[in-house]
TrEMBL record:
Reactions it catalyzes: malonyl-[ACP] + S-adenosyl-L-methionine = malonyl-[ACP] methyl ester + S-adenosyl-L-homocysteine
Keyword S-adenosyl-L-methionine: yes
Name of the protein in question: Malonyl-[acyl-carrier protein] O-methyltransferase
Gene this protein is translated from: bioC
Region forming the signal peptide: none
Species for this entry: Pseudomonas kribbensis
Organism placement in taxonomy: Bacteria, Pseudomonadati, Pseudomonadota, Gammaproteobacteria, Pseudomonadales
Length: 270
């Protein structure tokens, strides 16, 4: 069993090339296990104002294009852009359509002109960005006045069951660190964008065993890229220790994996 988790943030940052390569490799398997991603993205879509009709929208961190196609359906006839740092994801999404253009790019340095989008939609992508202040700055720059930046991300407390179980086994870095929710509040408040809504909501998935969870993380491309992480395969004794430690969290539905999801809707002032 390999050591798998989600990518790190401040305190130990991954190389963006590692993030892109990991998600590119997972493009073919991603949608088969992306229950959380679909649920979160749907909730984010439902947080958009009912009467909001963007003439030009951007799916930022589009992945396989699942929500690119959902946005195209919701805003039929309007221009859509899909951007991702992982070429493998774009290659998977492009033939499925939904966007006018599929673009390889970085959320921290968007290859778009000023004031050209009415909506930037980003579901479970910006947690991979080390410089979230730059992400917000780019959103402010690219949005038209009155435009909306809607994003879902992850914060501290995500996969705490896996983190605490590994801590009992060897004390090494196996589960990545995420920003505090308070940090999201601070950065959004200082961005120049008006906060329409900003909240933290837990999502809990259940698994029959630890292997099912780690298999899903691998299929998602959500590997542990923390500096200082253990390398290579994880020894049998440590895996047995992990399994035993994780059992303390077992519930009637199975072994829980908690994701602390941040939902935000921000508006560029007129």
């Amino acid at each position: 069993m390999t050591d798998l988790s989600l990518t790190a943030l401040p305190g130990g940052l991954p190389d963006k090339r590692q993030v892109a390569a990991s998600f590119s490799r997972a493009a073919a398997s991603y949608d088969s296990v992306a229950e959380l991603q679909r649920d979160v993205g749907t909730q984010l879509l439902n947080r958009l104002p009912v009467d909001f009709l963007p003439l030009r929208w951007l799916d930022l961190g589009c992945g396989t294009g699942y929500f690119t196609r959902a946005l195209a359906e919701r805003f039929a006839g309007n221009e859509g852009l899909a951007l991702d740092i992982a070429e493998g994801m774009l290659n998977h999404a492009r033939p499925l359509g939904g966007a006018t253009h599929f673009i390889a790019g970085d959320a921290e340095r968007l290859p778009l002109q000023d004031s050209t989008c009415d909506l930037i939609f980003s579901s479970l992508a910006v947690q991979w960005c080390a410089d979230f202040e730059s992400v917000l700055g780019e959103a402010f720059r690219v949005l038209k006045p009155g435009g909306i930046f809607a994003f879902a991300s992850l914060c501290v407390g995500t996969l705490y069951e896996l983190r605490d179980s590994w801590r009992q086994v060897d004390g090494l870095v196996h589960v990545n660190r995420f920003r505090e929710f308070a940090r999201y509040e601070q950065l959004c408040a200082a961005s120049g964008l008006r906060t329409v809504s900003l909240e933290n909501q837990p999502h809990v998935l259940h698994y029959p065993d630890v292997r099912s969870l780690t298999h899903e993380l691998k299929a998602l491309g959500a590997h542990n890229l923390n500096p200082g992480r253990p390398g290579g395969l994880t020894g049998r004794a440590r895996i047995l220790g992990l399994v035993e430690a994780y059992e303390q969290f077992r519930q009637q539905q199975g072994l829980p994996a908690t994701y602390q999801v941040v939902y935000a809707v921000l508006e560029k002032p007129l």
